[in-house]
Amino acid sequence: MGPQAKTEKIVYLKTMKFNINFFKYRFVAFLLSISLMGFSAFLFLTKNLNLGIDFKGGIMVEAKFTEAPNLAILRDKIDKLQIGNSEIQEFGDSNTILFRLEKIDDSNMTQEQIIQKLKNELDDDTDYRRVEFVGPKVGKELKSIAIKAVLFSLIAMFIYIWFRFSGWQFGLGALVALFHDVLSTMGFFSLTQIEFNLASIAAILTIAGYSINDTVVVFDRIRENLVKTDRALEELLNQSINQTLSRTLMTSITTLLALLALFIFGGEVVKGFVSAMMWGVLIGTYSSIFIASPLILFFGFKKVEEKS
Amino acid sequence: MLKINKWNVFFVLAVCVTAIYYIIPNIYGKSEVTALPKFLSQKQVNLGLDLQGGSHLLLEVDTKSVLKEKSEDLVDDIRKSLRKSKIKYSNLGSKITGAVVTITDPEKITTAKNSIKENIEKGILIEESKNKLNLFFSDQYIIDTRANTVEQSIEVVRKRVDESGTKEPSIQRQGEERIVVQLPGIKNPERVKALIGRTAKLNFHMLDPTTVELAEQRGKLPPGTFKALNSDPTAYEKQFVVKKRVLLTGERLKNAAATVDAQTGRYVVAFEFDKKGAKKFAKVTTENTYQRLAILLDNKVISAPQIREPITGGQGNISGNFSPETANDLAVLLRAGSLPAPIKVLEERTVGPSLGIDSIEAGKKALVIGFILVIVFMIIRYKAFGIVADFAIIFNIILLISMLSAIEATLTMPGIAGIVLTVGMAVDANVLVFERIKEEIRSGRSILNSIDLGYKFAIKTILDANFTTLIAALLLYNYGSGPIKGFAVTLSIGILTSMFTALILTKLIVTFWVLKLKPKRLYI
After folding, report:
1. Chain A from 258 to 277: CB within 8 A of any B CB
2. Nearest CB partner across the interface for B377, out of A129, A156, A254
3. Which residue in B has a C-alpha nearest to residue A53's C-alpha?
4. Residue ranges of domains in chain A
């Protein structure tokens, strides 16, 4: 290799070096996150989630009319049919209407008859883009599958991190950050009342994967620095976050750009999923910087322990 | 030391060739692909039902009803055998899976047990306590019965779907008593669903001369008869009094077809019995000439014609109030046979063709625009290295699609979202490396050394970080259904290919570039 002094001159560097003292803000961040989680829990308990038919059971029909129908008249028409509780909303554009019908369990009508009754009310040239029916039994099953999937993934990631970083503080730090992300995403769903369905579970799991990915990158650097330098732990953690910050932001930006394209052009079906993902990328990036790493210190991780 | 690894070059070339091999068939349409020369792959990415339109149905076979029927049959068997051996009994009745009977004379209980044993199936066990006999189905018998019922139901459903003209349907068992039916590109899902869901039990009875009005005046039905509704609610005769005895069933049918009756010009379903059935039909029509036959489909009368003369050829017509479609549907049902147990639709997801086409368009647009945004951003941020990363993204998408084709995966709308997301996330591995190279340069190392170390340090992080995302994707695949599974597939393959492109492909390009061109300055 050539003399090292020379390299500085021949390398063009776009400076993007960070030196932010994240630890100064850790209590502000903790407070912010605790309020965010509290607010999410509050929303979740009071406003609840706007459960889709995947979990609630029922009938959903997406119909495209040749011209925009009058919602009030349409609602009246459907109410007169007496086919249980119904919700009517525009979906994407004013020509497309989403009907959500609650199928009452003890009603004598089968879902076929209910759907037929609805179709009879609408114009003949209506384009039925989607017809979905989920029975109460399947709804319950899907609910328990969804809960299992989320729980198992949290546990699996916790175990992996604990194992990889030989310190429960790392595992727990990551787990708390994950819980923070999942809970606040639930809060996001409650607040926006975006339909919560199977795709939302996919969004939550992907967010969990994304957030832990970010966290692992920082943790990896902490591990590396632990061996390399003799700095005080607090300073060392801060240095590690700063060193990886550029990458953390870059990946978040490219992911958000891809999501933005999906949000604008990807169609109505994936819109809910994509907006939750966007929120998740933001919150996941935030938590890996401000929550996961400071928590390691908070949980009493000691450098000496690691080295012995 | 940074050097070009010959094996890596070889590996990358091999991957390129394989990728091209698998991606070629996707250029062609479904029918054209089979015409390709044999040495080319014919595997394509399948479009999910949400993209090509179609119906997904989750059905449940009510196997309990079969066990209930078997329990009732068992009661008949017990009655017959006890009567035959002249043993007095009481409290004979069926349970959910089995039957009980009390033998009046406790001393005859063993005789009774033996006599019953001769007349019942092997899997049915008998337990005696005092003067009571408790008959129940063994666990194996219940398992076998359920499995057989579901198997038979799948067969019948398959025949019906095939007859309805649906292209490439998929009918599979799921769990113990469920059936998943996938009907891609179906035009009239209601009609096929109606076909699938009908039990279609066809029974021939005799009509009792007593009219319903007369029976109501008397306050009771004649013995051995029951009331049955007319399947056509608009008909003049709303109900019939039908004799209980089943003379013939649909099982004896050899063929059925919808035709036009030459005399009336109306649609009828012509049927033909097999040999045994024809014989029986001849006997019935000879003995009951001028009386009315009752043809019942699922316990509703679809036709009640008068027998004008003995029918010995085993052929006949069912003339109901048929349209061309309903006549054809009935013929399909009769040809496919009846379901052994009722079927319930637990879940249905139907996507119309217009939404599928729109979704594909939207997915393409989002992919192209997401791709352009990320590519431009990478060049702005990393200059020449950005171009290398962009090359990796392009290669990544090609590799992803070729792998999807190689395993003939099903592409769904969430799956497309997964690909777009991969475009954004796949740069991560490269970003990790590039940032690391920058850092090393900043700390005063030479270009070659920095690149070498950049890859060396980043590889551990990349593996660790991607593994966790992979955990999430695998769990999604395991627990997710249909469209969500498609998302899990594209996401996990995207992660794998992005690791390959970042750790091997771009490393090779960067190494080649640095070693051959020996740049003095590194634009990163």
Report:
1. 258-262, 264-267, 269-270, 273-274, 277
2. A254
3. B347
4. 19-51+139-307, 58-134
In a domain, B21, yes or no: yes
Q: Verify whether the Cβ–Cβ distance B363 to A8 is below 8 Å.
A: no
Cα B151 to Cα B140, B147, B155, B177, B336: the distances in Å are 16, 6, 6, 9, 14
Reported ipTM: the value is 0.86
Phi, psi of A119 (to 5 degrees): -65, -35
**Two tokens, residue A71:** 């919602």
Q: Tell me the C-alpha distance between B455 and B433, whole Å.
A: 6
**E-strand stretches of B186-310:** 202-206, 225-229, 239-243, 248-249, 253-260, 267-273, 293-297, 300-303
* Tens-place pLDDT, residues B195-205: 888 888 899 99
| Interface-testing mutation among B460, B468, B495, B524, with chain A (most A C-beta atoms within 10 A) | B468
User: Are B460 and A267 an interchain contact pair (Cβ–Cβ within 8 Å)?
Assistant: no
Assign domain A58-134 to a CATH class: alpha beta
**Can you tell me the distance from the alpha carbon of A168 to that of A295, in angstroms, rounded to the nearest whole number?**
11
B196, amino acid identity: I
Six token digits for residue A11? 């390398």
B206 close to B292: Cβ distance less than 8 angstroms: yes
CATH classification at residue B493: 1.20.1640.10
Distance (Å, rounded) from C-alpha B77 to C-alpha B70?
10
Q: Which of A60, A301, A267, A261 has the alpha carbon at shortest distance from A171? A: A301
Is A133's Cβ below 8 Å from some Cβ in B?
A: yes
Choose the final residue of a domain: B340, B365, B389: B340
Q: Which amino acid is it at A307?
A: K
* Domain annotation covers residue B508: yes
Tell me what the pLDDT averaged over chain B comes to: 88
Query: Does A112 lie at the interface with B, CB-CB under 8 angstroms?
Result: yes
Residue of A117, A262, A275 to mutate, interface with B, max B Cβ within 10 Å: A262
Domain count within chain B:
3
Number of H helices, E strands in chain B: 15, 19
Chain B nearest C-alpha distance from A131 (Å): 5
Are residues B425 and A17, on separate chains, in Cβ contact within 8 Å?
Answer: no
- Residue B80: the pLDDT is 87
Say which CATH class A19-51+139-307 falls into: mainly alpha
Q: Which pLDDT tens digit goes with each residue over A154-194? A: 888 888 888 888 778 888 999 999 999 999 999 999 999 99
Name the closest residue on chain A to residue B438, using Cα atoms: A13
* Structural domain containing residue B336: 198-340
Best interface-test mutation with B: which of A144, A269, A271 has the largest number of B CBs within 10 A? A269
Q: List CB contacts (< 8 A) between B464 and chain A.
A: 164, 216, 220
Q: Does residue A295 register a pLDDT over 50?
A: yes
